[in-house]
Amino acid sequence: MRKSRKKRTFWWWVIGIIAVIAVGLGLSSAANGGPLGKRTITLGTIGPDVQIWQHIAKSDQAKKAGLKIRVKSFTDPVALNKATASGEIDVNAFQSWSYLETYNKENKKAQLAALGTTYLEPMGIYSDRYHKLSQVPDGATVAIANNPANTSRGLLLLQSAGLITLKKNFGPTSGTEGIATNPKNLKFKEIDDTTGPRVLKSTDLVLIGNTIALTGHLNVLKDSIYHEQVNQSTKNNINVIATAKKSRHNKTYKKLVTLYHNQQIQQWIKKKYQGTKVNVDKPLSYLTD
User: Fold this and answer.
1) Domains parsed from the chain with CATH numbers
2) Stated pTM of the model
3) Could you count the other beta carbons within 10 Å of the beta carbon of residue 177?
4) CA distance to 9, 17, 18, 146, per residue, from 23 (Å)
5) Does residue 21 register a pLDDT over 50?
6) Is-contact 166 177, C-beta < 8 A?
């Protein structure tokens, strides 16, 4: 009788150990995009990129890749990054490499990591009052983004346009204090960059990134009076797909990068946005080197 009880106890222990191991393997598999990882991926994005990812989510290419994607639209980029860091959102696709780096510097306890590159789209100088740079008067007001990454990018754009020059130590998060010369005595007005198209009528010049410009029915290649050169070497301005740092090795999430660069997906994007979103299929080392 005692031997029988001991045998039963022994086998219960064996079953328990096997169950624990199985759960552990299952969780590991899920973390790396295995069987339990085949749940729906929640992807957060902003503006016109919502349409892009809705198209991708419904595409045959997504089905062939075995990916189920739920797209969630945001209006606040900081809120989207924090939701991603907390795990409320699995991945996001809206920000440039420099914006991501700036966010990480300012949010040490809610870090994100890039999964891969997507596109480069130029920032433009827009005006409802002037049609070319030579018409910009002395003392004109320039509306510029109030976040470090886009402030820096906007000032570099103004330098490229010949309106200002910047100090030698000007960096990716520098602000107006980094201006060396301002021959037209331009005045700067900081705005939430998502409001750029709405302040065109009340401001001389507005610096607007293309994602936001598209929401205001503006085409940077046609409607701006000056824009960044569409050049893939401007790596700080390349957009990325990002996730919480702890999920940076998730194989399922990484499949989104490959899916984005699918030839048929890219043909749709090019036609839809008239070439303003230049495909950049580069390894992450390209951004960090």
Assistant:
1) 39-121+235-288 (3.40.190.10), 124-227 (3.40.190.10)
2) 0.73
3) 7
4) 21, 10, 9, 47
5) no
6) no
